[in-house]
Amino acid sequence: MPHDPKPHVLIIDDAITVRMFYRDVLEASGFAVDEAFNGFEALERMAEASYDLVVVDVNMPRMDGYTFLGRLRSQAEGAGIPAIMISTEAEDIDRQRAFAAGANLYLVKPVTPDCLAHHARLMAGQPMVGGRA
Amino acid sequence: MNALLAQFIPEARELIETAGAGLLELERHPDQTSLINDVFRAVHTLKGSSGLFDVRPLTSLVHAAEDLLGDVRADKLALSADIVDELLESLDVLGGLIDTLEANEALAPDADGLTSGRIAALRAMREAQAGARPATAAGGPAAAPVAQSREPAPAWLAALPEAMRARVYADTAASGAPLTAWRFEPEEDCFFRGDDPLALAASAPGLVALEAEDCAPVPALDDLDPFSCWLRFHVLCRAGLDEIHEHTRYVYDRVQVCSIHPDDLVVPVGQAAGGEVCADFVEAAEAALAIGNASGLVAAVAALENILAPASFEASALRWLRRVLDVRGMAAQPLLARLARAVGEGRMPEAEDDARTDNAAPDSARSLAVDLLAVQVAILATATSGDIAAGRLEAVATTVRNALSAIGAADRIPGLDAALGTARTQQHHQPLAAFIGVLLSDLAPAAGAQKAAAPPAGEAGAAPAEARRAEEHRDDGKSGATRVLRVDQGKIDTLMNLVAELVVAKNGLPYLAKRAEDVFGSRQMSREIKDQFAIIDRIAQGLQVGVMSVRMMPVSQLFQRFPRLVRDTARKLDKAIELEIEGESTEADKNVLESLADPLIHIVRNSVDHGIEMPEARRAAGKAEHGTIRLAARQENDNVVIEVVDDGKGIDPEAVKAKALRTGLIDSEQAAQMSDTEAVNLVFAAGFSTRDQVSDLSGRSVGMDVVRTAVQRAGGEVWLSSRVGIGTTITLRLPLTMAVTRVVTVLCGDHVFGIPMDAVAETVKVARRHIHTIKDREAFVLRNAVVPLVRLAGVLDLPSAEADADGEEAVMVVQAGRRRVGVIVDGFRERLEVIVRPLDAVLAATRVFSGTALLGDGRVLLVLDPAEIM
């Protein structure tokens, strides 16, 4: 049995519907998907498994997206995982804050399936032929 | 040395260094895929570059190491400590080969002997574990980029034997490494020009396949001209276009080179058999593909394979289906679907007429990537906190690397990694930002045509703004790209010496000004000379700072050997030791660092060997089984301070005293008066060793006294503090540079002497009535601490001048290590910058002076050694 060469993505969002939506999009474009409902749980997840990409929301209970990214970027292992931050705020100041925290892409909701799928594949080094979006 | 080789040698050293450091890191974090990729890439690059030279044994060894690493990377092999050992040993051998190559511009005749054993050992590692696959949590390797915006694959690929293509596919598809196909048709009369076309093809970098064929019908033997070349070569290389162009630069007009994608190798061949069973298979396979059911697909393939003739086109397509699935799994869904349909149609469908994959059009994917790269430049330009910066740098590099391989521009990845390496060592994002800027300007024109397309919804106009910002950055990137120049160290040393001479020579001008006034009676002239002196002084200082900064190196250069040293030594002793490194970006002069290398090795070995206890002893003492050694560097004023801290068993002052008594280093009275700190520092005394048995590791035949001598020779000092059961700290303090010493000149009688400024804590005037005699020694109280006094005249056995009429003594408080002593002198003079030359010949034995320096007026200044005065 061949080992699973799918890229792994971790979706971090406190809203279950949002997580389901991202999961559908990313699974269809060839990702193996895990979920976490806040930054805290995400860090625990990342200690157990390794990911090729994280997709993270800004506002979450217990640990928000900025804090999570800052922790991730300053830890010894896996600090270099590409991260997409998805927010409702389109202000420049929020974007700057995301960049300072270590996001590699800042998308503003609503995000279309294509936009998410293409960026995710690009950032995880997947050839640019999506599955069925 | 030819320029290419001169370029190769430092590059090779760097790559060996990178691979070694990466391996050690990898051993600690085995499931970090980026690390294995870094190591693999370094070794792979080394293999590619070494192929340019006639160094076959070296290339073969690198190749063997790369194969082994490839297995590890493909999860075929778990990285064991033994494998790391083997690889590190091989890197050492490679380092030795590079040294030889630098010295003789060729490998030694016995190079084969050196490497063949290593190669065999590396192969044995692969075979020993073949088939044993560890389960790792790591995501599989990124699937290779789909061919885009490049010329179509050459038709002759399909003519290569299927088995060979299959092998190359298996080797390359998973790695995303660039793959280049080239066709070489030598000129008929090439043999008359001393060419060897076969050797040229066979020595190609990253060679994975080589086929030769007749390029024309070969005439009958009688008519055959044996001096003509009738061959044509087809070559597949795991190397970038540039590498192949470089390799074939002398026959560029006879080769066609093209960058291919592993998927281009997937060409089923044979006669189509057709039939109902094939149509059934397509249906089953497509159903399995739709739901990502790999095992169902495998079952369908196996069922049909049993029926078909192996030579048929359909059987070939099925074999490819299996291979692609094996190597890339369901991620290769579009290709798998095409292969499945090929079984039904009896021909391979074109990728474009596959309506069921929503290909992102090459150009739009490219422009998306360009936007993403522009965002990365903007990210790097955004300020962040220090603890995030390093991780963010890695994340940006990973993002760019992934984007490049996703759009089929993997050939730019080595350049990216080089820029990342520079950014890491400089601890600044600029080199990486500059390189992304270059990428943008290279990729953007191709994407430019697509710019009219609206940005995908959801980005809220981010991309255009980002792109605009990137436009601005792009100009910066171009002009601000770091140009690194490799300069021979000898040249810089020459400059440094000249600068040092200049600094001293300029000190002659004030004397000249004085003479102009005193001897020639021209005050005007004197003032003009002084003005000129001020200008030259400023320029000389700027020059000195500039040249010094060139010679400054981060301490990491010195520290990088230690992870390996600690690991190997600890393994040998069955101890568990963690090495922590701090402040490795602290900079100091290259020579200072080099003079520190041996003492530091000795100290760290000592810590591993004698400091850290065996795991069971630590457990018994209620400590963590893992010992920790911390190497920390920091800058303090004009000094660099390096600490080696271990949490081992510490040094027992009583044991040291007893030993020192036995060896006659001290007498019992001294022993009784000694503080614990003074006692443990006895280990630096000549010929002292706390171990009666000499272990083979620390090389105890030389003791810490050698360390002290080496450090003092570099103008520094070393001291030790220790607590029994808690651990030991050894502190080294060295001047940042050795070239120019700042000295204070003091009067003693009618002589002038110099004392290095570093050693002078302060200068004070002490009233004679405040000088007390304690135990036959003079001392005075300075801010509530008793400071012993010595008279310089007494030390040097010179007649002393009369004390000040107002009953004060000029005292210079000299500090060496933790000790402070007040030195009574007859007066202070100016402070100077001088080059201290060590005393030689007869005078070398003089302990009180550390050297001599030439003064501006040509007189010789004797420079005192503060440690000896005390």
Automatic annotation (TrEMBL), chain A:
SUPFAM superfamilies: CheY-like (SSF52172). The modification 4-aspartylphosphate is found at D57. Pfam families: Response_reg. The lineage of its organism: Bacteria, Pseudomonadati, Pseudomonadota, Alphaproteobacteria, Hyphomicrobiales. One of its GO terms (biological process) is phosphorelay signal transduction system. This is Response regulator. Residues 8-124 form the Response regulatory domain. Keywords: Phosphoprotein. It comes from Blastochloris tepida. InterPro entries: Bact_response_regulator, CheY-like_superfamily, Sig_transdc_resp-reg_receiver. The keyword Secreted does not apply. It comes from the Bacteria.
TrEMBL record, chain B:
Keywords: Kinase, Phosphoprotein, Transferase, Two-component regulatory system. Gene3D superfamilies: Histidine kinase CheA-like, homodimeric domain, Histidine kinase-like ATPase, C-terminal domain, HPT domain, SH3 Domains. It is an enzyme of class 2 (transferase). It holds the Pfam family CheW. SUPFAM superfamilies: ATPase domain of HSP90 chaperone/DNA topoisomerase II/histidine kinase, CheW-like, Histidine-containing phosphotransfer domain, HPT domain, Homodimeric domain of signal transducing histidine kinase. Residues 466-478 have a biased composition (Basic and acidic residues). The keyword Nucleus does not apply. Residues 450-465 have a biased composition (Low complexity). Residues 522-738 form the Histidine kinase domain. One of its GO terms (molecular function) is phosphorelay sensor kinase activity. The keyword Ion transport does not apply. It catalyses: ATP + protein L-histidine = ADP + protein N-phospho-L-histidine. Its EC number is 2.7.13.3. Involved in the transmission of sensory signals from the chemoreceptors to the flagellar motors. CheA is autophosphorylated; it can transfer its phosphate group to either CheB or CheY. This is Chemotaxis protein CheA. Residues 450-482 are annotated as: Disordered. Residues 740-870 form the CheW-like domain. The modification Phosphohistidine is found at H44. Residues 1-101 form the HPt domain.
